[in-house]
Specification:
Elements (H helix, E strand, L loop, with lengths): L2 E2 L8 H13 L12 E6 L5 H12 L3 E6 H4 L3 E2 L12 E2 H11 L2 E5 L7 H5 L2 H10 L3 E3 L7 H14 L6 E6 L9 H15 L4 E5 L15 E3 L2 H5 L4 E5 L21 H4 L6 E3 L12 H4 L6 H6 L1 H17 L1
Parallel strand pairs: 1-7, 2-3, 2-6, 4-5, 6-7, 8-9, 8-11, 9-10, 11-12
Helix pairs in contact: 1-7, 1-13, 2-13, 4-6, 7-8, 7-13
Bound molecules: phosphoric acid mono(formamide)ester.
Length: about 325
């Protein structure tokens, strides 16, 4: 595997989940694979789970890991071509990425969208430049439009906790005070649509008017504007806020009550509730659910390790060829 950026980088979803769960059962059985290999993790934005789980996964594979928080520790990065760098940026991504590629066998990059320049965000300008100039395999630690390690984790968690062959999975929009990226819901949707194609889940998306995602990510999903309709007989609910895609990066007032509570949970098939975290309590998801027996959020975050480990393992195996 040369790059891990989207669901297109994985053919058989059931197979990758089984491989991840076998790593969960035997985390240290591949320690020789990563010996004398270095992973560099580059963060342009904050992280708790992605940073720690990917470091742990790499260490369990025997790799050495270096982390740089570019937003705080690196030189201010120029990402546009053809500019005279007489402003605040100090180093161009062309040199910065290439130098990091000299030090590392595999690199990871986190880069959030601007939510202002839709074209630059949705063409993944920054991520693609980093891949082009660093010259080594790259794993996305969340880019402008996708969060594939999170989505693989979510699939692993659903497969681990499901009680039937083809559970009903619902992506449910939730309120927030800030404009959040579409990366997590885009990514979750494209992974669930492919899982649906492969017979693993039934997938529904519920959101208020104005919060339609880019349909490149939702093809095959049932999409409804009525949360109660979506929740009926659901086995898993994935709660997440996102800002408008069409009115790019904007937050609009919504009609109805979109906060997930125990009352709403009563409509479901005793659904397990998921969220990528971090979550704002009683704004995006109720405390009664987060603290209750149906919440999977902490176990889900724990599974971030196995998603990262299976991806790094496949990348290391490609390096050996
Ligand atoms: N879910 C997730 O990516 O968490 P962090 O932003 O803390 O890495």
């Amino acid at each position: 595997m040369e790059k891990f950026f989207s669901v297109a980088d994985i053919d058989n979803l059931d197979l990758v989940v089984q491989e991840a769960l076998s790593l969960k059962a035997n985390p240290y059985s591949w320690r020789e694979l990563g010996k004398n290999k270095t992973l560099g993790l580059v963060f342009l934005n904050p992280s708790l789970r992605t940073r720690l789980s990917t470091q742990k996964a790499a260490m369990s594979l025997g790799m050495d890991v270096m982390v740089i928080n570019m937003d705080k520790e690196g030189w201010a990065l120029e990402t546009k071509d053809g500019v005279i760098m007489n402003g605040t940026t100090v180093e161009h991504i062309r040199e910065a990425a290439a130098v990091m590629g000299e030090y590392c066998d595999i690199l990871g990059l986190r880069s959030f969208p601007s939510l202002k320049d839709k074209v630059a965000d949705y063409t993944e300008e920054l991520f693609n430049k980093f891949v082009k100039f660093c010259g080594v395999p790259v794993v996305s630690l969340e880019s402008a439009t996708r969060h594939p390690l999170q989505s693989l984790t979510d699939l692993i968690t659903i497969m681990e906790y499901k009680k039937m062959a083809r559970p009903k999975v619902v992506l449910a929009w939730a309120p927030h005070v800030k404009a959040l990226p579409q990366a997590v819901p885009n990514s979750f949707s494209e992974w669930m649509c492919k899982a649906q194609e492969q017979g693993l889940v039934d997938f529904t998306i519920a959101h208020p008017t104005g919060y339609e995602l880019n349909d490149e990510f939702t093809a095959g999903a049932r999409i409804v504007g009525d949360l109660d309709d979506a929740l009926t007989a659901a086995d898993f609910i994935y709660v997440k806020n996102w800002s408008s895609y069409h009115d790019y990066g904007q937050v609009h007032p919504v009609e109805g009550d979109w906060l997930m509570t125990n009352n709403k949970l009563a409509l479901t098939n005793d659904a397990k509730v998921m969220h990528c975290l971090p979550v704002r309590r009683d704004l995006e998801l109720s405390s009664e659910i987060l603290d209750g027996p149906n919440s999977l959020v902490v176990k889900e975050a724990g599974n971030r390790v196995w998603a990262a480990q299976v991806v790094l393992k496949r990348m290391l195996e490609s390096l050996k060829k």
